[in-house]
């Protein structure tokens, strides 16, 4: 527990500090974090990050991750990131034929889905920080996710009796889920009172609910991945916490949803 607390405090201080700084240092930090997360996923699938497929996976993830104007600065200014990504998907499918299925369609699907999951998740985090109210927005989402995690943990331990999804995450309870949402409301309303971000109470409530509920769903998605690949943690980079995906699973699941719904 001591190791977990120390890692949590240091990690939170680093994230908060770099989020405040913003700009290139923040983007560079997120690129590093996303790269580690992608490597963790590759290792779950037993794909070496230094193999040709591993390196191609990292390239695809970086392509989706980096700010769009970074790609526009290259010599292929007439081609969009999405078009390059689609070409790479076709290349992956071609590899399944060239290798006579030693690299399978399932592995190609894993690479594509993983790069979208990690790349777009962290991309929208970078884009949110770069927005006009980016600093406050990122902190708002982070505080909602952290308060949801804390509320779910403490309420679940105190009164949790009904299992939420035992086949995926045996320890999570319905009471913990609802407790997480309740804690998120308290923190979200307090944040809005200090740093007004939303024009209406309805919008504030909607964003809190979406962030809290889908944040917990993002945690379940990562739990399902770990259960499928029979690993306890996504990695060992963070003592007492596991890997990068173990800490950022909710955030990278929520960020694209908030942007697609045009809530932030």
Could you characterize the architecture of this molecule?
- The chain has 264 residues and is mainly alpha-helical.
- It has one domain.
- It is 75% helix and 3% strand.
- The protein has helices at 2-21, 23-44, 52-65, 68-72, 81-98, 105-130, 134-159, 174-194, 201-228, 244-260, and strands spanning 163-165, 169-173.
- Strands 1-2 form a two-stranded antiparallel ribbon.
- Strand 1 (163-165) and strand 2 form a beta hairpin.
Give descriptors for this structure:
264 residues, mainly alpha, two-stranded antiparallel sheet, 10 helices, 2 strands, 75% helix
Total domain units: 1
Number of H/I helices: 10
Record field, number of beta strands:
2
Strand content: under 5%
Largest sheet: 2 strands, antiparallel
Rg, alpha carbons: 19 Å
Distance between the termini: 35 Å
| Poorly predicted regions | none
- In N-to-C order, the SSE pattern is HHHHHHHEEHHH
Proportion of helical residues:
over 70%
**What structural class results from the helix and strand content?**
mainly alpha
Average per-residue pLDDT, rounded, comes to 88
**Adjacency order of strands in the biggest sheet:** 1-2
């Amino acid at each position: 527990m001591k190791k977990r607390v120390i890692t949590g405090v240091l990690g939170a201080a680093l994230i908060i500090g770099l989020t405040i700084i913003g700009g290139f240092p923040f983007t560079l930090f997120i690129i590093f974090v996303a790269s580690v997360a992608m490597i963790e996923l590759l290792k779950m699938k037993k794909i070496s990050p230094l193999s040709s497929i591993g390196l191609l996976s990292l390239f695809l993830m970086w392509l989706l991750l980096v700010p769009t104007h970074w790609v526009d600065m290259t010599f292929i200014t007439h081609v969009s990131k999405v078009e390059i990504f689609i070409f790479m998907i076709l290349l992956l499918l071609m590899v399944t034929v060239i290798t006579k299925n030693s690299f399978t369609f399932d592995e190609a699907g894993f690479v594509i889905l993983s790069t979208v999951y990690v790349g777009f998740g962290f991309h929208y985090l970078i884009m949110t920080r770069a927005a006009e109210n980016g600093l406050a927005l990122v902190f708002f989402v982070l505080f909602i996710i952290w308060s949801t995690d804390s509320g779910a943990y403490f309420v679940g331990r105190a009164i949790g009796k009904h299992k939420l999804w035992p086949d995926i995450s045996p320890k999570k309870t319905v009471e913990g889920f609802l407790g997480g949402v309740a804690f998120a409301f308290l923190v979200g309303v307090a944040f809005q009172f200090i740093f007004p971000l939303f024009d209406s109470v309805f919008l504030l409530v909607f964003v809190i609910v979406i962030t809290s509920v889908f944040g917990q769903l993002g945690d379940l998605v990562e739990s399902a991945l770990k259960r499928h690949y029979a690993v306890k943690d996504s990695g060992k980079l963070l003592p007492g916490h596991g890997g990068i995906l173990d800490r950022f699973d909710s955030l990278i699941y929520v960020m694209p949803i908030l942007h697609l719904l045009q809530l932030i």
